[in-house]
UniProtKB/TrEMBL annotation:
The lineage of its organism: Eukaryota, Metazoa, Chordata, Craniata, Vertebrata. One of its GO terms (biological process) is Golgi organization. This is Transport and golgi organization 2 homolog. InterPro entries: TANGO2. Signal peptide: none annotated. It comes from Acipenser oxyrinchus oxyrinchus. It comes from the Eukaryota. One of its GO terms (cellular component) is Golgi apparatus.
Length: 273
């Protein structure tokens, strides 16, 4: 399970306003090996965490490049997965390294969507003349879409599927944004939102989509911050892009598979326009 909230505004009213505010949780098995966020690629251009699971090394769940490319991935909740399907983390890392624009890349991915287990993928290009934000889910419509400015929520169903946990988190996210906080305070408040452990029950849609296996852990899965035995939220990420192209990237990640040990890393840079 993962969850992402974001506000996209390609033409903010002032340089101090934000073109993007994004808050995301990565939920995963605590023991799955991965690297915490850092720069990689040619010229240290791309910033992301990296999956180090054998056979899936180099994939990622969320990343951004200094060239203004951003992508994030969530899995689609299904009762069974195909163990022979291609790794989904490469969908993010490939976009960050390729030259295709966000819509063209998702168009390409949509033609190959059957090769993967269920996923949702958002891609964006932040450019000096025009910003674009696109979405594709291989369990939904056959074609990707370009998103209009607004506030969106994405979990483990299709974009904006009205799960109770998604609606609750989107409301909390929107309330924080309405306060016009200074950047440090904004990051702090969004981290609080993403670590909310209040179950959002009843959740018949989640139970139906996950079928039998989800029932024993349904209560834990309905919170924004998931806490199960050996599995749950192990990374929070907050990304801010202001009107001048300045990027603030904050990652809070679990250490040593221990819910009591965390490290917060912050990165500041300007997009290459």
């Amino acid at each position: 399970m993962c969850i992402i909230f974001f506000k996209f505004d390609p033409r903010p009213a002032s340089k101090n306003a934000y073109r993007l505010i994004l808050a995301a949780n990565r939920d995963e098995f605590y023991h799955r090996p991965s690297k915490i966020a850092d720069f990689w690629g040619n010229g240290n251009e791309i910033l992301s965490g990296l999956d180090m699971e054998e056979g899936k090394e180099g994939g990622t769940w969320l990343g951004i490049s200094k060239r203004g490319k951003l992508a994030a991935l969530t899995n689609y909740l299904e009762p069974k997965i195909n163990a022979d399907a291609q790794g989904r983390g490469s969908l993010v890392s490939n976009f960050l390294t390729e030259s295709l624009d966000s819509f063209s890349y998702l168009k390409k991915v949509s033609s190959e969507g059957h090769l993967y287990n269920g996923f949702n993928l958002i891609t964006a290009d932040f450019k000096s003349k025009e910003d674009t934000f696109c979405y594709y889910g291989n369990r939904g419509a056959p074609e990707p879409i370009c998103l209009k400015p607004g506030i969106y929520g994405l979990s483990n169903s299709l974009l904006e599927t009205p799960w109770k946990k998604l609606q609750h988190g989107k409301q909390l996210f929107t309330e924080v944004l309405s306060r016009n906080l200074a950047p440090d305070s904004l990051v702090h408040e969004l981290l609080d939102v993403m670590n909310n452990q209040e179950p959002q029950l009843p959740a018949p849609e989640i139970e139906k989509q996950g079928q039998h296996y989800i029932r024993p852990i349904l209560r834990e899965y309905t919170a924004l911050c998931v806490r199960c035995q050996g599995y749950g939220t192990r990374t929070n990420t907050i990304i801010l892009i202001d009107g001048t192209g300045h990027v603030s990237f904050t990652e809070r990640t679990m250490l040593h598979s221990d819910v009591n040990q965390w490290k917060t890393s912050s990165f500041q840079f300007r997009l290459l326009q």
